[in-house]
Structure to design on (655 residues):
């Protein structure tokens, strides 16, 4: 950060920081109040590029070593002290309420080293990883982006600009070239790897370099934008942050452009300048770094405990402001934390501390750690060749000349593998499981425009063809899909706004309503089941339970003393609404089963879950739609005790 005495210091930049952090905090409390508030981070990126370039220009070293060492020492002093205190404190606090804090704590350790963004990007690939909303160090991803930018940017500055004219064409040109490459990757990765586009530095380089270009060419840009009204520019930023009309990519571009325009066009006599340089805005801007660190600590701990409610927000905001002020006043501003050797020692000690097992032993609730199945299976996205070939390593194949139970569909069959292992062993059946994340079987339509969804359709179709040819008399096919997702409005984050008007995409790339899609699925499935029954293959069709679209996962609905479930609306679901959806799209299942009772069975867990007075709770769920392992096992046992389950056992005893 440029000091107040620096010739490049601008008070309006502090006000711009204030807008950025306020928008981020509002968005994190309630996204509907400021849908694009997350773009405040992108405002920070532009400001960082601008300020860092000014800092480099202000640096007058005698040689390259002095130049680079001075730069990194200032960055370490600026970033690490407050970050270390926040991480150690947050790691201890989250361990009190999270029985499995290991992944979160590793994020904190990665943040100290400057690559938590890379860790979070890799973590997002794990389909069953806890939501980033429950990771108390998620906010550190942007620090990782900036710190990685700092590894490259000073070198470019020294090579192309230092000891030359400030308006060096070579420096501006190289930044523009790299920015173009970066923005192309930002757009390209949105479709192929959105987590990489969001978290990693290369797709974000253009935002930070925009600030650098802005600083270097400020005088020329001021002339070019001299007639633009700065008040309208500031209003434009507010409109971008508060509306959600465009895609993430275009909103990001707009907020970067408007941030640059605010820096270029702001004038001392304008309304925008009076707003940005007001005492309150400057103060918020000064403590914005500590606000950014601590706001997420408070919000995340709230998500793990009492939740966020209209009555709790004033207290949570007061706590955020108090912690941020303390951090700014006694850590950021004090000289006690500015000795570089002590900072590095503190960083090393904090990494060691947060990695110790003692943090796993201070949980204050009942120990209810989730157990995950260890039964082998094949994911069609991760092991495509094995899955398509229906390899024997996709399960347990130990009985020669005995039937096989095939589990296909999305992850909702995978959750029952422990119970199915015991069942198949008892009846001397082999067990093969092939599934895809949010990828239904059989594949009827290509839903959405993402390549992954197109791959889902093609792979499941090929699997279906191979499976039909592989099946033998006596085999069983369990088809398990999250029906709520595929026919209840949830796709690409649309579940939260369930609507009968949501559309899917057919194989001919024509839009279908959900009712049309369900009807298409019915006819295709009925034809497929006839083919399988003609081969003396039995079919079990899984019907899922009421689910919890607002439940982030983890243990936040486990009903601990510090997180009472009655406070959490996201932990409750209306069973009648769920059954209404099922009847609408799958009312044909019972007649389908009645046509061939010996070979067709319905595993309807909606009839098995406990929902007192029609209200279901997520106490036995690991996320919005998956059961805890022990509960999944109990549901299978319950099913076997029903009339349908007894008929199923009787049928397989014939083999």
């Amino acid at each position: 950060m440029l000091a107040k005495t620096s010739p490049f210091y601008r008070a309006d930049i502090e006000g711009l920081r204030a807008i950025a952090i306020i928008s981020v905090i509002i968005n994190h409390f309630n996204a509907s109040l400021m849908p694009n508030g997350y773009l405040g981070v992108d405002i920070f990126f532009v400001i960082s590029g601008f300020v860092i370039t000014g800092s480099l220009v202000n640096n007058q070293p005698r040689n390259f070593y002095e130049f680079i060492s001075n730069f990194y020492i200032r960055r370490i002093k600026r970033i690490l002290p407050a970050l270390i205190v926040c991480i150690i404190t947050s790691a201890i606090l989250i361990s009190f309420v999270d029985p499995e804090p290991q992944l979160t704590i590793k994020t904190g350790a990665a943040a100290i080293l400057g690559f938590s963004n890379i860790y979070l990007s890799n973590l997002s690939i794990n389909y069953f990883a806890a939501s980033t909303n429950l990771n108390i160090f998620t906010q550190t991803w942007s620090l990782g982006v900036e710190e990685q930018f700092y590894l490259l940017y000073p070198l470019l500055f020294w090579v192309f600009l230092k000891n030359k004219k400030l308006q060096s064409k070579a420096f501006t040109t190289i930044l523009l070239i790299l920015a173009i490459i970066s923005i192309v990757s930002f757009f390209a990765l949105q479709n192929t790897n959105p987590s990489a586009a969001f978290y990693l530095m290369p797709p974000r380089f253009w935002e930070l370099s925009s600030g650098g270009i802005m600083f270097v060419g400020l005088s020329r840009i001021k002339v070019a934008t001299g007639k633009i009204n700065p008040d309208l520019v500031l209003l434009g930023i507010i409109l971008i942050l508060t509306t959600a009309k465009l895609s993430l990519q275009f909103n990001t571009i707009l907020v970067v452009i408007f941030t640059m325009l605010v820096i270029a066009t702001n004038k001392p006599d304008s309304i925008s300048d009076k707003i940005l340089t007001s005492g309150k805005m400057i103060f918020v801007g000064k403590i914005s770094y500590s606000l950014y660190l601590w706001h997420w600590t408070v919000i995340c701990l709230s998500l793990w405990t009492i939740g966020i409610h209209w009555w709790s927000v004033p207290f949570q905001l007061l706590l955020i402001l108090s912690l941020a002020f303390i951090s700014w006043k006694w850590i950021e501003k004090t000289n006690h934390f500015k000795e570089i050797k002590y900072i590095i020692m503190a960083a090393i000690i904090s990494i060691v501390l947060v990695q110790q097992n003692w943090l796993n032993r201070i949980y204050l609730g009942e120990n209810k750690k989730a157990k995950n199945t260890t039964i082998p299976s094949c994911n069609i996205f991760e092991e495509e060749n094995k899955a398509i070939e229906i390899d024997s390593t996709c399960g347990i194949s130990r009985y020669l000349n005995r039937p096989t139970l095939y589990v296909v569909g999305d992850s909702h069959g995978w959750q029952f593998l422990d119970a199915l292992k015991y069942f198949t062993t008892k009846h001397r059946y082999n067990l093969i499981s092939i599934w895809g994340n949010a990828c239904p079987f059989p594949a009827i339509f290509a839903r959405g425009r993402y390549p992954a969804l197109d791959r889902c359709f093609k792979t499941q179709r090929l699997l279906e063809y191979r499976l039909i040819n592989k099946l033998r008399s006596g085999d069983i096919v369990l088809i398990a899909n999250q029906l709520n997702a595929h026919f209840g409005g949830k796709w690409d984050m649309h579940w939260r706004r369930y609507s009968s008007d949501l559309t899917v995409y057919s194989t001919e790339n024509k839009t279908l309503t959900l009712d049309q899609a369900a009807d298409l699925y019915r006819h295709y499935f009925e034809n497929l089941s006839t083919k399988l029954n003609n081969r003396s293959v039995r079919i079990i069709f899984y019907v899922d339970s009421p689910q919890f679209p607002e439940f982030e996962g983890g243990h936040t609905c486990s009903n601990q003393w510090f997180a009472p479930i009655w406070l959490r609306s996201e932990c409750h679901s209306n069973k009648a609404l769920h059954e209404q959806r099922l009847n609408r799209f799958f009312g044909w299942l019972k007649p389908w089963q009645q046509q061939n009772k010996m070979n067709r069975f319905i595993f309807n867990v909606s009839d098995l879950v406990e929902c007192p007075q029609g209200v279901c709770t997520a106490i036995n769920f690991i996320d919005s739609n998956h059961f805890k392992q022990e509960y999944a096992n109990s549901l299978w046992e319950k099913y076997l005790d029903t009339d349908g389950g007894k008929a199923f056992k009787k049928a397989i005893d014939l083999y």
